Amino acid sequence: MAAKKKGSDKQAQVDTTLAEVDEFEVAAASGGWEETPVRKAAHFWPSAKRLIGLMGPYKVGMSVVFALITVYVVLSVIAPRILGRAMDVIFAGMIGKNMQVPPGTTADQIVQGMRDAGETTQADMLSRVDFVPGQGIDFAQLSRYILLVLAMYFVASIFSWVSGWLLNKLVMRVVYNLRKDVEDKINRLPLNYFDTRQRGDILSRVTNDVDNIQNALQQALSQLVQSIMTVIGIVIMMFVVSWQLALIALVALPLSAVGAGFIGSKAQKLFTAQWKNTGALNGQIEESFSGHELMKVFGREDDMVERFTERNEELYKASFGAQFVSGMIMPVMNFVSYLSYVGIAVVGGLRVASGSMSLGDATAFIQYSREFTQPLGQIAGVANMLQSGVASAERTFELLDAEEQEPEEAKQQLPARTDGHVSFENVSFSYNPEQPLIENLSFDADPGHTVAIVGPTGAGKTTLVNLVMRFYELNSGRIMLDNANITDLSRADLRSKVGMVLQDAWLFGGTIMENIRYGRLDATDEEVYEAAKATFVDRFVRALPDGYDTIIDEEGTNVSAGEKQLITIARAFVANPSLLILDEATSSVDTRTEVLVQHAMAALRSDRTSFVIAHRLSTIRDADTILVMESGKIVEQGNHEELLTTQGAYYNLYQSQFAGPAEDVDANPDTSAVPVAAGTPVPGAKTPDTVTETE
C-alpha cells in the first residue's frame, strides 16, 4: 500500500546519554514509522492515578482488603508496646531480686532513700520501675504478655496472608480486563494506525508493557498499601510512647521524601526510555526475522547486526540508568534512618536515666524506629518497580487513547445475498492531505462482471479496493453497493458480503481444515472439501500424512508459498461472497498452478462481481472491464482487445511484458500485441504461449 511506502528504508540514528534523557526519542528503523516522543516525569502522577483507577470496579473487594490490612497493622504496631511491658516485668524482677533491704520496705521508700542520699539519677530511673524489693521476675505476668504478643502476631500474619491473596485476585482481574480492553482497542483501530507504526512496538505494548503493569500491581501495590498503613500506625504509637522521640524520628521523613522524590523523578524518565527502547528493539528483531531470507540474499547480515547492536546499546543504557538511579533510593533512605536511629538511642537513653520513661518504653520505641524504617525501605524498594509499571502504563494508555476509526451508524442493511453492483461516484482520497492520490474517480462495476485494475506501483490499485472494504474513509464522494452507500452500512455487514485474497497469504496456527473454514465458520466438511477441490488444494493435501488435519505452524513454514496462497483462495471460495477482491492472488503460484487457479477463479466469479488487481496481464485478459490507473486516476477503461487497439497505457504495459522493454515499444509504435482472447496473432509480437513472464 501507498501508506507503507514499500521499498523505502530510512534509519534515524539515536544519540542519547543518561544526562540527555529529557531529549530522548526513539526513531523507527525503516518504512517511515512514526514514534510518539517519550513522556516526561510530569505524566507520572496522572498515569499512576489512572492506573489505580482501574481498581475502581472492585471497590467492595478493595474495602475488604483495606480492612484486613488495617487489622494487621493495628495488631503489628501494638505488639511492640506489649513487649515493652514484658521487658519492664523482667527489669523490675531483676531490680527487686537484687535489692537487699529489710522486709516490709516499699519501692517508694527505697527511691526516697536514694534521693536523701544524693543518688538523684538512680532514684529518678527507679521511680519508673514497678519493682517489689526482694521479689524476682513475675513469670506468670511475663507469660501472659508473651502469649498475648504471639497471638497478636499470629492473627496479624493470617490477616496479612488473606489480604495479599484477595488483593492479588483483584489485580489479576484488573489485568484480565486490561488485556481485554487492549484487544478490543486493537480491533477498533483504523488500518492507518498499523501502517504508521512498527509492529514490534505495538506487540511490545500489548505483551511486555501489560505484563510489566501486572507485576507492578501484583507486587508493588500490596506492599505499598501495607507499608503506608504501617507507617501511619507506627507514627501514632511513637507519639503515644514519647512525643519527644517521635519528633526526632519524624525528622527523617522529609529528608527521605525529598531524596526519594528527587531520585524517583530521574528514574521515571529512564524507565520510560527503557520501555520505549524495548519496543524499538522488538521492532528491529521482528524485522530481522520476517526479512531474514532477503537479508541473506543482499548480504546485509552485518548491517542488521550493527543496527541491533545500536538499539541494544540504547536499551542497555536506559535500563542500567533506570536500575542504578532507582537503586539509590534505598541506600539514601537507610542513611537517613541510621541518623535518626542514633538520635533516638542517645535521647532515649538519657530519658531512661532521668526517669522520664521506662526501659520497656525505650525498648519499644527503638523497635518502632526500626520498624518505621522497614516500611519506608519497602516503599523505596518497590518505587523502581512502580515507576517501571507506570512507564508501561503510559505506553498502554497511549494505545488505548489512540484515535479509533470513525464511528458507524448502520442506516441500512444488505440482504443475505446481493447483486454486487459497485459504483464509485466522484471519489477522492489521500493518505496525506498534502499529497493527493485519488481525485474525482467515478466508474461502475456491473453485477457478475470482473473488473481488473492494472497500473504501475503506487498508482492506487490496492487503495481502491481498501476503500471498498472501508479500511479507510473517503475524503469526498461516495461508493455505492447495490444502491446503498457503504457509509450507511455497518462495517461488519459490508465485509460479510466480500471475499478477499491478498498478495501476502496469511495462515494461522491450526489445521488446513480450520484455515479453509475460517472463511465461513459454519461451513460443513463437505463444503470445505468442495472448495479445496475447486482451488486444487485437495490434490496436495491428500498427499500429506494427516491430510486436512495437518497442523500448519504460525508462520506457515511447513507448506510452500504457492500452497499457502491456494489455501487462502479456498478460504474465499468457502465464504461464498457476493463481491470478490483478488489482490495479486496468483503471484505466489507457479505457472501451471496459475492456469488451474484461473479456471477455478473463473468459476468462482461466474455469479459475483470481482475486482482483480494484477501485474501479470496474462491473468486478466478475460476480464469484462480493465481499468488502467496512473497516479490515482483511471486513464483507460475497456476490455483487453479494445485497450490493445487504442495503443495507449495498457498497450505499453502489455508490450513491456510480452514484446520487450518499454523503451523499445516507444521506439517502434507500430509493434502491436496479441489479442490472445481472440486468438489472432499480430505481426511482430510474441504470444503468451511462447513467452516466459519475468516478474
Describe the protein's topology.
Elements (H helix, E strand, L loop, with lengths): L43 H10 L5 H39 L9 H10 L3 H7 L12 H50 L2 H5 L3 H43 L1 H8 L1 H39 L1 H6 L3 H27 L1 H25 L5 H42 L21 E8 L8 E8 L4 E5 L6 H8 L7 E6 L2 E2 L5 H5 L2 E4 L8 E2 H6 L7 H10 L3 H4 L9 E2 L8 H15 L3 E5 L7 H14 L4 E5 L11 E6 L2 E6 L1 H7 L2 H10 L3 H6 L28
Parallel strand pairs: 3-10, 3-11, 6-9, 9-10
Antiparallel strand pairs: 1-2, 1-4, 4-5, 7-8, 11-12
Helix pairs in contact: 1-13, 2-5, 2-7, 2-13, 3-4, 5-7, 7-8, 7-9, 7-13, 8-12, 9-11, 9-12, 9-13, 12-13, 17-19, 21-22
Protein name: Multidrug ABC transporter ATP-binding protein
Pfam families: ABC_membrane, ABC_tran
Membrane topology: Multi-pass membrane protein
Task: Write up this protein.
The protein is of the alpha/beta class and 695 residues long. It is 57% helix and 8% strand. It has 23 helices and 12 strands. Helix 1 crosses helix 13. The longest helix has 50 residues, at 139-188.
